[in-house]
Specification:
TIM Barrel; 7-stranded parallel beta sheet; two-stranded antiparallel sheet; 9 strands; globular; binds coproporphyrinogen III
Length: 342
Amino acid sequence: MMNDRFLRACRREPIDRTPIWLMRQAGRYLPEYRALRDKHDMLTMCRTPELAVEVTLQPLKRFDLDAAILFSDIMIPLTPMGIDFAIRESVGPIVANPVRDQRAADALRVIEPASDVPFVIEAVRALRRELDGKTQLIGFAGAPFTLASYIVEGKPSRDLLLTKKLMRCDPAAWHTLMDKLAQTIAAYLRAQIDAGAQAVQLFDSWIGALSPRDYREFVLPHSKKIFDALVLSGVPRIHFGTGTATLLELMKEAGGNVIGIDWRVPLDQAWQRLGDVTLQGNLDPAVMLTSPDVIECEAREILSQANGRRGHIFNLGHGVLPSTPIENVERLVEVVHGTIVG
Ligand code: CP3
């Protein structure tokens, strides 16, 4: 059976049930993911199309999800740009050669996806064949700011102090770095769309560290270049961030026809502010560590805020946590799909 609920919700068309998928739906909370991870490291899995395809499909075999998201990582296109990194378990990306001045920013390359990341293109093509129109495929990339935060800090950071220092003390170097990232990501998402991705999501996970004024000056023009480059593709574009309560209007201005929000902003308030746009979210991933009954109650609250309005995609406010019990995900999907919209 063909299921296009996800795409219909992106376009704000009527739907029978609210579509649901989960950020990080393929990952360590799944025993079958951990079994494969015991044999291969994370980056090898991302760079081997057969493995990336297998992991992408794992959650779909268990749960009745309305979209698949390519298994990869936001760091993948950075290697051919000239960034040398590793992903350390329970920590995140560690960069060996952080970029903190104009020379280092000038040395970065804008990638050519077909020759620099052929394995991603191959995985997207293979996934479209496997999914056969039954489930929609989402491609993705990290947004310039979130990627720059790892590239400048060299590791995950709570305060992003070096990132904010570079912005202000060497704005030329900052804008060079952000422009090269924007060009790379636009080409990278374009290549995923050409290979068959039916929607794309830009992850600006750490953007909540900035004030609206900083966002407008140091980030918005660069994220906007990416969305502007993708408009003509006609493919839905999801713009996601966390901690964005003061940034939502600016994120919409930067682009995207779906805005992904976290649990800190109630859905109905976000709609009041943003008007006619599809919203994606926004259950707190911490709720997924409770019990099926608590999850049912919280999910119903979110569905009642949506109140049958066109253009809602159910998701968590951020990625599935590794300690999430499988039965909790099962209940969440049952509740969302068991509720008739309208
Ligand atoms: O959503 C999906 O199912 C697609 C897969 C996906 C991964 N990373 C797989 C992954 C996606 C969309 C990402 C994006 C990503 N990667 C982001 C943006 C989204 C977000 O969650 O904020 C960020 C900031 C990263 C950087 C990164 N990569 C981090 C912080 C980590 C976690 C480190 C850890 O061990 O806790 C990674 C590694 C990573 N990416 C894992 C997975 C499944 C865990 C790797 C493992 O198996 O050890």
